[in-house]
Target: Pantothenate synthetase
Amino acid sequence: MQVIHNKKELCNVLGPFWQKASHTIGLVPTMGYLHTGHLSLVERCNSENACTVLSIFVNPTQFGPDEDLETYPRDLERDLDMACDAGVDYVFAPQAPDIYLPGHSTWIEVVSPMTNVLCGASRPGHFRGVTTVVAKLIHLVQPQRAYFGEKDFQQLAVIRQMVRDINIPVEIVSCPIVREPDGLAMSSRNKHLDSSQREAASLLYQSLLLVQELVNQGQRDSDALRQRIIDHFSISPHCEVDYIEFANPQTLELQQGPLQSDAQLLLAVKVGPVRLIDNYRIILTH
Ligand SMILES: Nc1ncnc2c1ncn2[C@@H]1O[C@H](COP(=O)(O)OP(=O)(O)OP(=O)(O)O)[C@@H](O)[C@H]1O
Ligand SMILES: CC(C)(CO)[C@@H](O)C(=O)[O-]
Ligand code: BAL
Model:
């Protein structure tokens, strides 16, 4: 495995791959502090490409002024060991000034209701930062495929929209959520949970399953279902619900009133110091 520190090295190393159509490159963009969720993306990427490039970059432009950019977990040495063991070919770990040159003033932004709801409403400017950096990474690495996790369900939809809208020649591959044994979605930020917060964090997945169970029993009223989840979280002093919404899985249009068809249930909950997200496809036909 080779570590690439800047754009110049990247061109030198990936140049030979760009020349040969059969030498496919897969890109796995991350912000580091790797866990098994990230490694599932690497495994899928390894199985579908001649070479895997894992990027590790805590992208400052997707963090709001009061968010956790400074405290975001970082440990490059640990990440490199894990990436090497997982069969990554190249780790691209640039510094912010190499990605955002002085005077940087160009943004890629999906302007759509899709980016104004859910995390877009709670984190203004977040998706503009994500799409800008993902477009840059794809442009730099020139992969045939790029891999993203369904844990960040809205991010995936927004990236698909961007790729379609500006004709980026890359296939976006989505990978299922990897969970801890109690159902908590793996996330780098879980590291900041103490033991009682960690226990409370299992309520996220439990509440998604509870909704599916209530739907199986015939409940269809989305307001009543949302209220059940709010009640579910109110038992914990550690949890503060940000949003709970049913959405069209493709457009992310929010669903009100009775559920008419399968819907994505998405939630964001602050657990102690950490804002966690999760989602689940609610199926009506059980
Ligand atoms: N549990 C998971 N299962 C599948 N994919 C995941 C999981 N966690 C993260 N990913 C995916 O890995 C990629 C990089 O994510 P990122 O580096 O932000 O990690 P993260 O664990 O989501 O961190 P955060 O604490 O910021 O939520 C994204 O495409 C994300 O969706
Ligand atoms: C896609 C991404 C690497 C862009 O910084 C980030 O949003 C993430 O890790 O999900
Ligand atoms: N995985 C999403 C990155 C973020 O929360 O900024």
